[in-house]
């Protein structure tokens, strides 16, 4: 992995459309990489200015942007290697332009012990192509009862604390976790979902669920927990991030909390920004997600919130499920979709539709997650790590599940027409993915 | 036997009422009328499905629907096999699709499927080569029940258009209600849903029905009172506090029935919980169509099997 990489030859990108989502600035020019970091950038950097022995990459007008930082992806190790491994997840990430994966803690065993954090980091070093930062569980065993060893887990390398897609039922436990996290200045990431209110629900509550005869999940199942959490953040002063919000009720609460100056941030998934409940059609289980896809009106609100910055982060919510768990009646099928490899291209739909400017999209996929996690990535600036992606945002392609690098092919974008596929990906100046031209 | 040829039924499967046109529905009802005649003769056998294999694959236990499909298939000359998977393969961990593929390899012509999950029959229909009939999937649809209810109504009232039909009870979880709402609306009836808000939520109005939470106003002037079965697990505090409270407010007795039209008729898809959703005096009374519904069930299923047989390969 990057920290131990040997020094290598200078690398000069020329003729690029440099998009820095951190500053919002877009320039034509070049970018020089020395020792895995960005040494210089700007219009003056042309091939003739290359240092001795430099490798020159002519970007031919393509976008050069910071690699994506995905705050929520399941990498399978340890314990679910039949669904994904760090090798396959990071291969998918590299092909999708994700240079930093924040790994979900819901493994088996869960990441609730420093030894498991260490295991994930070592597996990432030995088998990963991109950076992998493990989340640690918020509570022991992700059982929602006792808070985990924040201090020791952080020292072992845990980037933040989260129980994955298990929401804390008990407000007292949540309060204690937030209070204790404050002493370590640790970030608490929480998936807001009232499990009792979800009950048997498997899709958005509304007319479509009624027509399909499926039990619905009201928007309140998410918003109630967001409301509760925000009050507890106010009470404790902790740093809090709602991992996935997917409806307008939650957004309204978050907007108000942010206006009051609470240190809260939130994310949503690429699926909830680009799909809605109608995509479920005739019980398509690849569209079964948690939280469920909602009405088009809610999707519009989410897109608007990305455009205005209320939603800080877009995640892939990469959740590989093998076919056996999906080829079932809708209510019994597992929820989840792979997404590392398609998140950028799917996100570009919002750019092409004119709803979100390109730098804003990239900001939610790189700069903001990096800032929230206090990483140096996510910007094109002198001194920043040379985690870079090159793509032509207009290049059309059809998603072919067979070509995906993930072990599982449960993509909701099966045979979708997208635009803007990553051509090459660099981590700390090293090439980790190069698309063969077909 | 047919007096005049019926329009061709254009579907390969019968997965739900949704997706059927008015003509499709009327065709099935007209075909069922002829099947009633057949069923009332001493010689009840026809040869439409001779040599064909019909498999009744029931993932949920059912007495009347399964028996009804079995008799319908046999009267048309098919070889009928009943498989109650509720107590075989699924317990051994075989998935729905594996069972389907196994059955498919035995080359049945018609597969009649009941499953506890919505959409399960659609999933299966995508994977097998034969015609598939939905005999009830979760809270989604139960198309043959709606057809037999429509046939029963049409025979007693002479029409469906313009009638007011009150569907009472657990509308939320009922596939019978869903299929009936779609079918009877398509044929021009006015639909009402009557029940406590936990079982007949106001959001049902999105399906084009008028929602009532009081039996007296819900039944006022109704031509048809269709009672639904209340599952036992829903009456112990989960959706209603107790069966006695439910019966007090929503059970159909003579007193509540008096609010309906003077010539209103009473229906129930069965099996009934006497004293919970319906009083015995009403269930067995002169205005009850409950036994007629059972007879119509066989006729409608014969019609459906016959309609689908039009598309079965002959080589």
From TrEMBL, chain B:
Residues 12-154 form the Aspartate/ornithine carbamoyltransferase carbamoyl-P binding domain. Residues 161-307 form the Aspartate/ornithine carbamoyltransferase Asp/Orn-binding domain. L-aspartate binds at residues 92, 175, 229. It catalyses: carbamoyl phosphate + L-aspartate = N-carbamoyl-L-aspartate + phosphate + H(+). Pathway: Pyrimidine metabolism; UMP biosynthesis via de novo pathway; (S)-dihydroorotate from bicarbonate: step 2/3. Carbamoyl phosphate binds at residues 64-65, 114, 142, 145, 270-271. GO terms for biological process: 'de novo' pyrimidine nucleobase biosynthetic process; 'de novo' UMP biosynthetic process; amino acid metabolic process. Heterododecamer (2C3:3R2) of six catalytic PyrB chains organized as two trimers (C3), and six regulatory PyrI chains organized as three dimers (R2). This is Aspartate carbamoyltransferase. The lineage of its organism: Bacteria, Pseudomonadati, Pseudomonadota, Alphaproteobacteria, Hyphomicrobiales. The gene is pyrB.
